[in-house]
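Input sequence (436 aa), recorded before submission:
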Amino acid sequence: MQYRNLIVVAVLALSMLGTASLHAQKVDARISLLMVDDQRQDRVEFDVVVTRVDDSWQHWANTTLRIEAVALRQTGGLIAGVHRIDLVPGSSDLALVPYDATQMRGYTCTADIVQGRIRILVYGPDSLDQTIQLSATRPTIRIGRFALSTVDGSAISTELAFAEPTEVWQAHAAKLVQDSIITAAGQEVYVYRRHDNVEIATRYGIGSSTTPDCDSVQIMAFEALYRGDLSVQLRFSTVCEEQLDGFLIERALVDRRRPNVLEFQARANLDYANNTSLAACGTCDKGRTVDDILDGVEYRREAYAYRLVGVRAGRGDRIIFDTAVVHIPNAIVSNASVLRNPFRDRVDVLFDADDRLRIDAAAYDVLGNKLGDLVDADGHPMVNLMVQRGSGYRASFNVGDIASQGLVNIVIIGHPIDDRSIDELSRIVLKAQHLR
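Predicted structure, C-alpha cell format:
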C-alpha cells in the first residue's frame, strides 16, 4: 500500500481506525465488487465501489485490491498474457491523472495481473484538499468498471472473490482532518498528521450491479471453517437482502487431479427452503451476519469447495456470490516434542490434537517392555482418554525406580472419535534419554 509520510507510533489509542477486521471491530467503509450482467463468454465486467459507513472520515485517499478467479485458485490463478484486465474508459468517479512520483494532484488507477490475481492500485493526491469527499449525501463512489477477458477468446469464469485474508491482501486508506488525539492524562499524542494516509477498517464483499435499490445485494466475507469431527461452519455477512428470496450453499469435493473443475451439488440442509437461517431477511436494513450454518463432510484429508448462491425474489434466477474452500485434516497428533531431554525422574511431552481424539500414551524401554502410561496435566492416565481439538497438550511419565538409565520410547496413539479404523490411527514415537 502506498502510504506517504505516515508517522508510526508504538501505541495507537484510536477507537475508530486500525487494521480491518470483520469480527473484531467496527467498520469504517465497504469496498464492493459488483458483477455486471454480460453474456459474453470471454469477458467479465465488474464495478468496484467504495461506501463510507462511518462518519469518522470524509477524505478518500487510496486503495490496493487483489481479486481472484475462484475456479483457477487450485491451478495458480490468472496468467498474464492469457488473461487481461482493463479499466473501462470514462467509468471512474475519480479525477484521473497520470502518475507522478514527485507530486500527486489527483488519482491514478492501474489494473494488472500479478501472481495469479487481479491487482487494482489507486494512487491518491498528496494533499487532503485535493481528495474526493464522501458524506451523508454522497456516501459512495465508483473507482471504476473493470473488464477481465481472455486474449484468445476462450471462456472465462464469472466467479471472482477478494483474496483472503483481507488484512494481508487488501489495503484501504483515508486522510483525516484531525492530526492528533488527547490522552486521558491531557497529553497530545501525534498518531498521524494532516495529509497522511491512514488505514481504515473495511469490509470487502461481492454483489451485483444490476440488482436495484437497497445499495444492491452485497455479501461480505463468505467463509468455510473446519470445526472438528468432520464438521464445517459456514458464515457470511450481508448488506442488503430485499431483492432475494434466500440463499443456497452448494458443495463440491475438490478433485486433486482436476482442482479447477468443481462439480457443485445441492445440499438439502443448506437450502433456504429447509433452513430458516438462509431465508432472506427483508427487515435487516443494516445487514446481518449468518454464522450458525453447519455441514457434515464424509472424508478426511480432502478439500471441499462451498458456493454461496442467492435466489432473486419473484424471478427465481440465481446470483453466484462467492466460493470458499476448506481443507479437512486427518485426525492426527502433531507437533509432539520432549520438553527436557535427557531427563532424570520425569519426562514431559507436548503435542497438538488436530481433531477430537481418544489418546493412548505410554512409555517403553528399548526392548519393547511397557514401563507405564503417561498422565495428562490433571493426572489422568492417558488410556482411551478423550481430548478436544486444540494445541499445547501436556503429558508426563514418572520413571521412578523401575527403569535403568537408557533410551525410553514415548508412544502416543490418536484415534478419531468418529472412526476406529486402523487406517485413521495417528502414531508418534518420541525418543528420550533417561539419566540415573
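Checked by second reader. Residues 138 and 375 are 64 Å apart (CA to CA).
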